[in-house]
Amino acid sequence: MADPILILGIPLDFILFGFILFGIALFHRHTLAIALIGLAVIISYKIGFTGFKFGMGVAGLGHHMEHEWVTLANLFLLLMGFALLSRHFEESRIPDEVPALLPDDWKGGAVLLVIVFVLSSFLDNIAGALIGGTVARHVFRGKVHIGYLAAIVAASNAGGAGSVVGDTTTTMMWIDGISPLSVLEAYVAAIVALVIFAVPAAMRQHRLSPVVKNATSGLRVDGARVFIVAAILIAALVANVTANLKFPALLDTLPVLGLAVWAAILLTAFLRAPDWKVMPETFKGTIFLLALVTAASMMPVEKLPAASWPTALGLGFVSSVFDNIPLTALALKQGGYDWGFLAYAVGFGGSMVWFGSSAGVALSNMYPEAKSVGSWVRNGWPIAVAYVVGFFVMLAVVGWHPDAPH
Known about the structure:
Blueprint: E1 6-7, E2 10-11, H1 12-26, H2 31-50, H3 57-91, H4 94-97, H5 107-122, H6 125-139, H7 146-161, H8 168-175, H9 180-184, H10 186-208, H11 223-246, H12 256-267, H13 279-297, H14 309-318, H15 324-334, H16 339-348, H17 358-366, H18 373-379, H19 381-397
Helix pairs in contact: 1-2, 2-3, 2-13, 3-6, 3-11, 3-12, 3-13, 5-6, 5-7, 5-10, 6-7, 6-17, 7-10, 7-16, 7-18, 8-15, 10-16, 10-19, 11-12, 13-17, 14-16, 16-19
């Protein structure tokens, strides 16, 4: 790999990536085209000038994609599969029953965010966000505030931050030999953050559209669809735990989690056919995320600043615009972090912008109005405040205890 071209001391790779992010923020109705054009420009630049981490020219690109394909395939299969899961869940009619179980006032919205948080602690955070978004559509009769949508994503990311089965980044740590107990401490910060952003988000949602309590009379839950939803979620959980405990090497060669989800979808299709109509729009959102993740993986980030709590804090803000998977991989390679802090930072930090996490992209496929950086930041600003406060509460209560490089 050749040295990158520098402009005012900044590698041109980062400038090109910055233009992609700027374009997405400015022209949110054309995010897919911007991401794909930006990725094509970056690939062309690297083929023609600097090469890739694993070689020069087209051969270098091939080796790079060989290294990244499992991550990309997993994201593709999960985003597409969980979109079908959310439709099964919606058509099961369970979301229509939820309003009767929630408090009448703003606390109903807050309780729903807590439910999303808990679900994401043992499910993938994409599934947690989509289930939360599906319930919100029924609870608030389709009038969901963009600040509340941001809060759903934040709750799903916060719930997955302290669990090695709740987020891709924490699963990466588990695969790399980090103890699940080392990651568990992230919940100190995550719970504090949840309280801080959930209350204003729920109050704002209540002012826009309160919980609708009158459930449809004579409602009958579709048991077959409930079974399908449970089967898909259990398949994902069992595949994740089994692969990590028994066959960790398999995770580097096959998209195990995504394949398990799709196996469950196809094997249960005879009970109720999936709603394939959601696939075209979901496909667009998925390709958008994969384009960003691929572009991020090509950036010349060979090492991070020295491991410290200020570095971990900063990585949370970086994760809002830069994919957290390569950041986590670099941190694991470098070592010397307190892994609970890193899990919270890269897991929850992505909530500050809609495309900063896979959960945000998945929910934005369901609610296209969320695909505006300006609206997301303007209405979801309590999330950034919650991130910082949660981090420093954790620093005061738990303290920074870095692990030796492993």
